Amino acid sequence: MKKLILALALCAVAAAASAQGNDLKVAIDPTYEPFTFKTADGKPTGFDVDIASAVCEQIKRKCVFVEQVWDSMIPGLQAKKYDVIISSMSITEDRLKVVDFTDKYYNTPSKIVVKNDIKFTDAASLKGKRIGVLKGSTQEKYANGELKKAGVVVVPYEAQDQVYLDIKSGRLDGTVADVIEVTGGFLSKQEGKDYGVVGPELYIPKYFGTGAGFAIRKGETALKAELNAAIKTIRANGTYKKINDKYFKIDVYGK
Amino acid sequence: MNWEVIFREESLAMYGEGLLTTLGLLISSLAIGGVLALIFALMLTGQSRVLQRIVGAYTFVIRGTPLLIQVYMIYYGLAQLEWIQTRWDTVWPWTYFKDAFFCALLAFSLNTAGYTAEMLAGAIRETSAGEIESAQAFGMSRFQLMLRIVLPSAMRRTLPAYSNEVVMMLHSTSLASAVPAMLDLTAAASRIYSDFYLPFEAYLFAAAIYLCCTFCLVGAFKPLERHFLAHLAPRTN
Amino acid sequence: MSAYYASILYGALLTIGVSLAALLVSVLLGLLGAGAKLSGSRLLVALATGYTTIIRGIPELVLMLLVFYGGSIGINRLLELSGTGATLDINPFTAGVLTLGFIYGAYMTETFRGAILAIPRGQFEAAAAFGMAPVQIFLRITAPQMVRHAVPGFTNNWLVLIKATALVSLIGLQEMTYLAKQASAATRSPFAFFLFTASLFLIYTWVSLTLLRKLHGRYSLGAKRGEL
User: Fold this and answer.
1) Which CATH number do you get for residue C199?
2) Residue C19 structural domain
């Protein structure tokens, strides 16, 4: 009797483990409007989500979206909680040491965002100001690398929309964020009307990498090839343009 | 297991900073919470029904909602109020609400005050009737009665339960990691984990430090209990 | 906006689910632990004492992070070694239930141990004299009498457990605290959402207290109490 129960339990576990056979688990951080966010009733939506769905259609697998906090994205990938990260993750040298990336699917710069009444000339003009950044992001690396030494107080947050919450309440003076994201997620809203982007477009590869790609575990060459082919296809057949135009007025594929 | 990374200088420095923040939060919130608890306990066992109801409602809410939600409420919720926003740049004491450490401290203090107040109030109510009657027969005023007879006795009897509360508070400080910009021990471990992808090592090290602190606290309370509750111990001769 | 509130209500169901599942695990572990501590065996007593001491010495959050992030990697490494291609994922629900059950099992051990010790020894001796098997003794003698003594400690542990489920939001389970945090950041109105979630917790706590008080009353029928 006991052996039977044990056998059944093992079967159940094996079944559960292999049932995910054809689903593609995609990790997203849904706090990054308009790339990845959720509607009020909890459905993931945004540029990243639509691109992911289009790619899944191409490779004939079902996309299952898994939410994850940004700074545990890569550890979660390595722990096999999901198979791919499609959440505006920039391709940087540091990240390439631990994971693999497909080709880029968009490339937009970041910029510093502060209140309009702050006269910005260079990093030193922000001395003493509190700048919020997303923990584990390329913007955080930049802020810690360039702004901290000029006397700026860099405050890390676990989600980008929490940065906006604290900017709105006045705890922060600004942030370093992707231009498109900060426009869609903050500046275009009522709360962002006193704020604006300042300074040059930050394309520094040392910090920001070479565009956003899908992150996969090292060694998954088959999946990488599939995804790359799918990206090429949707770029060619107009699906990419359709999704791009749904959210943005400009072409985000970039250089 | 890769322990080399944990024992690097920068990592140990981060853990050290985290430990200092944790202990700082613990001691400050126990101190502030302790004073508040005394005041609340007196209100709970006092003669004013109104105060009793108000403080009773306060402890009901504090003990009925998770500390995490209390922390979020104080850090994010209060910051949202226009009233606070217009004052916290210039008007003292509202300037403190801008600071993350203060918000965490306030949440922990209010929380421990709620629990300790109920403990202390319970001990006050359980004070032996005979002692109270003899004090009143001596002509002591209510104030003198409280100060000389009831409170010393009640505080001693709360000691075992309070030692539990202190350990609980140490563990609760790990929730400071949920507040942005707070680097307590758990946040330090999380940082090491996300930087080096070593969850086991990072969190086990933090767990070991917490375990040591817990043992120290429990060890510190034993002689205290022996001294202050000597009068309740069984006969040894 | 109201869709956010609706989703938080669904999250509340998940909170209730996690807490009840964790309660089950903790009661089982508590009974096993109490049994181990009260058995004569030095080994079992040492194991049980080690369990309760260590668990009560580590914050719940740290344990949860260890189990959720560390556990998956550990299990997957073992599976890799076994050669099968399978991957087992510990989802947040399971990690939360196991961790909370494990932690509160330690507290329940102490509660049940105290409750069993409160039953007069003569009852066990009489039952043995009647020739009852250990299982019969437990079901007919120990358990009914234990309930009365265990209820205050059990109530306490249960209330703390309910509130600890909020911590499972920090490992990504989409229960009400997690959803409230996301909704509040997305709509920039934390006050309303956290107030709503706090009220839901209060209702949950209050209902539990009332039900457990009734249970205590039911199992105290016939117990003599001194006139204070």
Assistant:
1) 1.10.3720.10
2) 10-219
Phi, psi (rounded to 5 degrees) for A117: -85, 5
- Local confidence pLDDT in tens for the 228 residues of chain C: 788 899 999 999 999 999 999 999 999 999 999 989 888 889 999 999 999 989 889 999 999 888 888 777 777 777 778 776 666 677 888 888 998 999 999 999 988 988 888 888 898 889 989 998 988 888 888 888 888 888 888 888 998 899 999 999 988 889 999 999 999 988 888 999 999 999 999 999 999 989 988 888 887 777 766 544
8 Å CB contact of C62 and B189: yes
Residue C224 domain-assigned (yes or no): no
Q: How far is C226 from chain B (nearest CA, A)?
A: 15
Domain spanning A20-107+210-247, CATH class: alpha beta
A170 and B180 within 8 Å at the Cβ level: the answer is: no
> Is B80's CB within 8 Å of C189's CB?
yes
H or E, element range at A40: none
Spell out the domain ranges in chain A. 20-107+210-247, 110-208
Which chains share 3+ C-beta pairs under 8 angstroms with A? B, C
Chains with 3+ CB–CB pairs under 8 A to C are A, B
- Cα separation, C198 vs B66, in Å, equals 8
Question: Which ipTM value was assigned to this complex?
Answer: 0.86
Question: What total of structural domains would you count in chain C?
Answer: 1
Q: Are A147 and A131 in contact (CB under 8 A)?
A: yes
> In B109-142, which positions are buried (b, 16+ CB within 10 angstroms) versus exposed (e)?
bbbbbbbbbbbbbbbbeebeeeeeeebeeeebee
Query: Does CATH place domain A110-208 in 2.60.120.10?
Result: no
